[in-house]
Design brief:
With about 190 residues, the protein is mainly alpha-helical. The chain has helices at about 5-10, 20-40, 40-55, 70-80, 85-90, 95-100, 115-130, 130-140, 145-155, 160-175, 185-190, and strands at about 110, 180. The chain has a two-stranded antiparallel ribbon.
């Protein structure tokens, strides 16, 4: 018997308890995504509500093997109720949160970030994005979804995902670039030794 998410959802239509398998598979992913966006205080409630909505709407699931985009899409919509809270959270972003936001894998570039100084700029940049741009960027970053998964989660065309992600990256990069300190060059480090 196949155990992909679509099969679990179909089986849950006649045996509701089977839906617990889907919860067991994806609860941590949804909780982590919500927690990163709203903070731990709201993650449990929104995660629970996400699975309640998913259970109630399981007959309308049109996804395939992976229900993660569908679940993260539900969570994203539910979080819109908390948009002011999220904006406040971005403005008060902690330095530790910097490590979780990867704009074009900026952390692997030959640049050293001053996380304490960069956090407020990154937080403001994220808070200043339109809801659509921010949702796409954070589904990609925190939800670990690819472009197709984001399109499915938000019910938007793939081209829209690409343009929103590009725009969000460009705006965030422009906001933080003036605050990134270049790492010492290898040549200078070589001459020191």
């Amino acid at each position: 018997m196949s155990t992909h998410d679509g099969d679990i959802i179909v089986r849950s239509l006649t045996h509701g308890a089977v839906f617990a398998d889907l919860y067991d598979r994806h609860q941590r992913v949804v909780h982590r995504y919500v927690g990163r966006r709203l903070g731990a205080a709201f993650a449990e409630d929104v995660t629970s509500e996400t699975f309640l909505v998913a259970f109630a709407r399981r007959a309308s699931f049109t996804g395939g093997l992976d229900a993660r985009p569908w679940l993260l899409g539900i969570a994203t919509v539910l979080m819109q109720k908390h948009s002011r809270l999220e904006a406040r959270a971005w403005r008060g972003m902690l330095a530790a949160d910097i490590a979780r936001v990867h704009i074009d894998d900026i952390e692997t570039a030959d640049e050293r970030m001053d996380a304490d100084g960069l956090a407020p700029h990154l937080g403001s940049a994220l808070a200043g994005l339109s809801r659509g741009d921010r949702d796409v960027l954070l589904l990609h970053t925190f939800g670990d979804l690819d472009y197709a998964g984001i399109a499915e989660a938000l019910g938007i065309p793939l081209g829209t995902v690409r343009s929103r992600l590009s725009r969000a990256r460009r705006k965030v990069r422009a906001a933080i670039t003036p605050h990134v300190t270049p790492a010492p060059s290898r040549e200078r480090e070589h001459h020191r030794g």
